[in-house]
């Protein structure tokens, strides 16, 4: 591996200036808190790409379509999945439970569209002992940063080619070693597949994609990159509506169940929201989800696809027999090697073993609530005292996950004009798109769709880019 | 002509939202006063394109290369030009005089590069009586908004195609009626021609373009659009330096007179500064201009080319015999029809006539100082009292220019999130690029390079976009 670029103070200051203006000129931006709509900020970024072993990067891309298939198969075996979700609902009645009951209600009313679109992202950390990627989680709803990832890759490539990483003005990296993620286009391609399928089956009209978003979205430009790619490359326009407003703004034909927005037929409902309990703070939000779920539009994702992303499913898949059962192709060494041990803390045999581990070797684990978005993770030595502080009956609401020991890399984070130099921990996300029939399991489209590297300071345990803890980064493969 | 789009309050508010995010995502931005570098603003823009008669627009493009030739010829007849500039220096010793004496000093030291690049912009207003374009001025230095003009054209086309100008979602305009200016690329093409010429004649090295800019440039993203086009399309990198700093940062080989910046050979010095007296507030700025002028790099523009943009030259060209003398091709009806009457206020016969006009029919005129950037225009009825307030000997420091009566069009300006609905007056700029030998007059490249429409509220007499009075706009040709 090459050494890290070292720049004089003057050259680093020039790099920051050039980076900032290139990024702003090319939409690598985000809204700050309490923003004025016409005044964005430079998105938090690293100054340099972060080193990543090529073998692990290639593996992550290779297994993307297999993960797509695996989750498609799980969704198609709805009975098995729903049994698990039903059990989970006990621990998370407010959110998982409501998603589940909304699905049941939708089924009762009738779900006219069996075809479903998944825009997925599998997140990995590089374990510094095995030097292998290990899966942190598999996201089945509202995956973000596909748009800005393309832009940060273009940024780092530009800075390198423009000679800003060296004092001589020569490139520091070989171009081939800085792969630019095609995720803005890749996610748009997935939407395009779904639109094309819908139009071929259901209509002669030109349809639109309906982005269901959060109010005051700070990460709007990440979403816009996908929207504009979809329009510029395929001529497919999108419209945007917030979750609670959608019910009052859409129209559903009671006979055909076709969905209309502002006079246009909607072929795909694309959620860039609706993934956390705080978004369902009013009955309108749940009503909206139900209304949309029972239309003919293809949902990205459906409630079932969203529910398949539960941590409990991730835990069950660490058993290779379960993977084999759902998708024999996926049960290969590459994919299985990305799993760390995950244990339930319930009354099972495995649960009993895990409870012992939690008290005897807590430093190897992180405790994660089954409940979505409703609590924080508990790390290492804090686990025993935390468990003692709650009734044992509630322990089954958590999973115990083997800690990944991420490498700490040298890099500099630029946020709000300030440089943070504390080393970075990075998380690789790999996007995948899957268009499939939930009832028959038939796969209509399955593709890898680019990647994402998010980095955060080595000291911070959690947090996304928009929340202000991390930043978008790109890969230097070696 | 079609009616102007009328939108409901809801649709207009949606249009503003979509316009804002598309613009920010695509770099249609500007820094506000007292900016933080990582936080730009949406550039002031119109919501809609402004109607423009196609015949006049086509004419403006057609005559662009003829204006290039004309100014190239004037520069090549240096003796004639310098006599005029010498006379002008009396009225503007601080600026025109200093530019002139700096040129003389450069000539004394030796100007090794006879080839010169002009990136010009001819500005017109549409006279609402004749319905013809009339030239406001011909700019020979640091012409701006070529970058943002392309972006505002793309913006208005996008909004139209995306169906945001109608309640039905259909386009309001025919695509062909919304010409997108190719000026970002056009200006880059001019620079590319100069770089290629320099490299073919003088070096085997890969050279750079040196942008000489103002400190704390608010309009940086307009310049960046040209820079990135030049790099992305031709692989030619640029570097940036401020005017007073350049002397200490460049190196000149005393033998070859080659110019180097940060270790790179500079083929073209591109001024996006150096056009107003307030920029030369220290001797370093003048020194810098002299140092650069006497290098082998191609200047865009040279001091002589810059001086050819004096209002006095514009006045002299209103005589068709003068045009014929310099460029017989340019002395055609189309080009000559763009001139309004311009009179000197000196001791000539024409001057005596003009003095009479100034007092008898002041409402038809604007009084403009010969002095560059050093005073304000005086309009209509204010002219007599103004002239009386200064000694008659100083009157020759002004020209009397026939007022153009611009059409007022309906349009809405969006600035800092607020809509201004007062009608707009628009100025059409047409870019041209000319690479030529100042000594022989040989033309190496001559092209039209896109256009620009700037609009301002009907009530404001003056002011550019960055100054906060106007905004970037695009054409709807009809």
UniProtKB/TrEMBL annotation, chains A, B:
<comment type="pathway">
    <text>Sulfur metabolism; glutathione biosynthesis; glutathione from L-cysteine and L-glutamate: step 2/2.</text>
</comment>
<dbReference type="InterPro" id="IPR014042">
    <property type="entry name" value="Glutathione_synthase_a-hlx"/>
</dbReference>
<feature type="binding site">
    <location>
        <position position="372"/>
    </location>
    <ligand>
        <name>Mg(2+)</name>
    </ligand>
</feature>
<dbReference type="GO" id="GO:0043295">
    <property type="term" value="F:glutathione binding"/>
</dbReference>
<feature type="binding site">
    <location>
        <begin position="141"/>
        <end position="144"/>
    </location>
    <ligand>
        <name>substrate</name>
    </ligand>
</feature>
<dbReference type="GO" id="GO:0004363">
    <property type="term" value="F:glutathione synthase activity"/>
</dbReference>
<dbReference type="InterPro" id="IPR014709">
    <property type="entry name" value="Glutathione_synthase_C_euk"/>
</dbReference>
<feature type="binding site">
    <location>
        <position position="223"/>
    </location>
    <ligand>
        <name>substrate</name>
    </ligand>
</feature>
<dbReference type="Pfam" id="PF03199">
    <property type="entry name" value="GSH_synthase"/>
</dbReference>
<feature type="binding site">
    <location>
        <position position="462"/>
    </location>
    <ligand>
        <name>ATP</name>
    </ligand>
</feature>
<dbReference type="GO" id="GO:0005524">
    <property type="term" value="F:ATP binding"/>
</dbReference>
<dbReference type="GO" id="GO:0005829">
    <property type="term" value="C:cytosol"/>
</dbReference>
<keyword id="KW-0479">Metal-binding</keyword>
<feature type="binding site">
    <location>
        <position position="121"/>
    </location>
    <ligand>
        <name>substrate</name>
    </ligand>
</feature>
<feature type="binding site">
    <location>
        <position position="379"/>
    </location>
    <ligand>
        <name>ATP</name>
    </ligand>
</feature>
<keyword id="KW-0460">Magnesium</keyword>
<feature type="binding site">
    <location>
        <position position="311"/>
    </location>
    <ligand>
        <name>ATP</name>
    </ligand>
</feature>
<dbReference type="InterPro" id="IPR004887">
    <property type="entry name" value="GSH_synth_subst-bd"/>
</dbReference>
<dbReference type="InterPro" id="IPR037013">
    <property type="entry name" value="GSH-S_sub-bd_sf"/>
</dbReference>
<keyword id="KW-0547">Nucleotide-binding</keyword>
<dbReference type="Pfam" id="PF03917">
    <property type="entry name" value="GSH_synth_ATP"/>
</dbReference>
<dbReference type="InterPro" id="IPR014049">
    <property type="entry name" value="Glutathione_synthase_N_euk"/>
</dbReference>
<feature type="binding site">
    <location>
        <begin position="368"/>
        <end position="377"/>
    </location>
    <ligand>
        <name>ATP</name>
    </ligand>
</feature>
<feature type="binding site">
    <location>
        <position position="139"/>
    </location>
    <ligand>
        <name>Mg(2+)</name>
    </ligand>
</feature>
<feature type="binding site">
    <location>
        <position position="427"/>
    </location>
    <ligand>
        <name>ATP</name>
    </ligand>
</feature>
<protein>
    <recommendedName>
        <fullName>Glutathione synthetase</fullName>
        <ecNumber>6.3.2.3</ecNumber>
    </recommendedName>
</protein>
<feature type="domain" description="Glutathione synthase substrate-binding">
    <location>
        <begin position="207"/>
        <end position="308"/>
    </location>
</feature>
<feature type="binding site">
    <location>
        <position position="454"/>
    </location>
    <ligand>
        <name>substrate</name>
    </ligand>
</feature>
<keyword id="KW-0436">Ligase</keyword>
<feature type="binding site">
    <location>
        <position position="137"/>
    </location>
    <ligand>
        <name>Mg(2+)</name>
    </ligand>
</feature>
<dbReference type="InterPro" id="IPR005615">
    <property type="entry name" value="Glutathione_synthase"/>
</dbReference>
<comment type="similarity">
    <text>Belongs to the eukaryotic GSH synthase family.</text>
</comment>
<keyword id="KW-0067">ATP-binding</keyword>
<feature type="binding site">
    <location>
        <begin position="217"/>
        <end position="219"/>
    </location>
    <ligand>
        <name>substrate</name>
    </ligand>
</feature>
<feature type="binding site">
    <location>
        <begin position="272"/>
        <end position="275"/>
    </location>
    <ligand>
        <name>substrate</name>
    </ligand>
</feature>
<feature type="binding site">
    <location>
        <begin position="401"/>
        <end position="404"/>
    </location>
    <ligand>
        <name>ATP</name>
    </ligand>
</feature>
<dbReference type="GO" id="GO:0000287">
    <property type="term" value="F:magnesium ion binding"/>
</dbReference>
<feature type="binding site">
    <location>
        <position position="137"/>
    </location>
    <ligand>
        <name>ATP</name>
    </ligand>
</feature>
<feature type="binding site">
    <location>
        <position position="456"/>
    </location>
    <ligand>
        <name>ATP</name>
    </ligand>
</feature>
<keyword id="KW-0317">Glutathione biosynthesis</keyword>
<feature type="binding site">
    <location>
        <begin position="465"/>
        <end position="466"/>
    </location>
    <ligand>
        <name>substrate</name>
    </ligand>
</feature>
<dbReference type="InterPro" id="IPR016185">
    <property type="entry name" value="PreATP-grasp_dom_sf"/>
</dbReference>
